[in-house]
């Protein structure tokens, strides 16, 4: 059986080519699937349970997909709703769906897959040995689970299949693997599991696997032997290179991809160009595991931050920026400890040299000397008031600190006034673990809602 999965873009909120989407609808897809989230922008969205994408933009794009779904008469599924997939973000997406349904006068059956986890339950599961670390995971104790503001489990194809089996028009899922929302229906319909997971990996970011990645729209056709990649925008071409290369996107191994319940092995996959646009892939294998595990993501508060910025342009200071920054940190820390009576571990001051090595730090290998450096100062403390207070300690150093006592007092530029900017509560990821389940649905909740 052939299963056609239409993928409008890599994520809801990134936009998609409407002409290409219409082309895809004309090809009669069996399902429309789109990712709604990412961890690319850091832990704050999971920590707060909010979306990083504009609500207005999300609503416009989702409305277009709801209209396309009605025209095609097939299910529409979104995974990792609201960037992080926590329950609050799922409710945010559900509210948007209700508003659009009312505007369009659509009557809908909606399946809501919730992936948020109770921190106390996860703490107990950890103590019972049901949660184990992945490579390079941070060391955690039971109390670390209860410190998380949000913990989500990443749903796989089994949980999406359960939602599809309800007959829902729209599935709003919490945190899922990027591939699960694409692989689920082909697997349910008996298509090759290796092809289903491999095609889902290739199509997870829409047309990123093609020569016109910003167009977004791609169709993946699955069958009993393999899958075919079909970019749908003008000027978009898939080649064996663009398709095979996507196995390395956000994946450390070009041949193996781990998912709930097993792993994909593409060692023997064959990529063949059908024409100058389409690519056919065969030979992918799905290897079931002896236990069913789902990945956990958790975020917790990591203090409050104040940021300041100044600009160095004088060649003498640009050349010696590291010496200047290190001296400021040392002297300002000493003053804060002495005057506020704080212990050294109660706060942190960083100066990141933008344009020199702010990304790589000591790993930077580019030797070219910049002519101007932006200095980003970051103060972290256990309260917003304290972070801002330390920021004010730091202010005069960033404005006037000389390299040596013998030099005239310099003046540097603040781009903002006031120079101290509160970032408020910050968050950090604290889990890179898997949870073992006897039943794939045991830690997920499925709700059915009718609207309109």
Molecular structure report:
- The chain has helices at 18-26, 44-48, 55-72, 87-104, 119-127, 142-146, 157-164, 180-188, 193-203, 240-245, 315-319, 321-340, 384-400; strands at 3-7, 31-37, 76-83, 108-114, 131-133, 150-153, 170-173, 218-222, 226-231, 256-259, 262-265, 270-273, 279-282, 285-288, 292-312, 347-354, 373-381, 421-429, 433-437, 445-451.
- The chain is an alpha+beta fold.
- The protein folds into two domains: 3-115 and 154-290, no CATH class; 299-429, 2-Layer Sandwich (Alpha-Beta Plaits).
- α1 (18-26) runs parallel beside α3, α3 crosses α4 (87-104) and α8 (180-188) packs antiparallel against α9 (193-203).
- The chain is globular, with a radius of gyration of 25 Å.
Which key terms come to mind for this protein?
single chain, about 450 residues, alpha+beta, Alpha-Beta Plaits, 2 domains, about 30% strand
Strand order within the widest beta sheet: 12-13-9-8-1-2-3-7-4-20
Count of distinct strands: 20
What is the beta-strand fraction? 25-35%
Number of domains: 2
Biggest pleated-sheet summary: 10 strands, mixed
The global form is globular
Low-confidence stretches: none
Describe how the helices and strands are arranged:
Blueprint: E1 3-7, H1 18-26, E2 31-37, H2 44-48, H3 55-72, E3 76-83, H4 87-104, E4 108-114, H5 119-127, E5 131-133, H6 142-146, E6 150-153, H7 157-164, E7 170-173, H8 180-188, H9 193-203, E8 218-222, E9 226-231, H10 240-245, E10 256-259, E11 262-265, E12 270-273, E13 279-282, E14 285-288, E15 292-312, H11 315-319, H12 321-340, E16 347-354, E17 373-381, H13 384-400, E18 421-429, E19 433-437, E20 445-451
Parallel strand pairs: 1-2, 2-3, 3-7, 4-7
Antiparallel strand pairs: 1-8, 4-20, 5-19, 6-15, 8-9, 9-13, 10-11, 11-14, 12-13, 15-17, 15-18, 15-19, 16-17
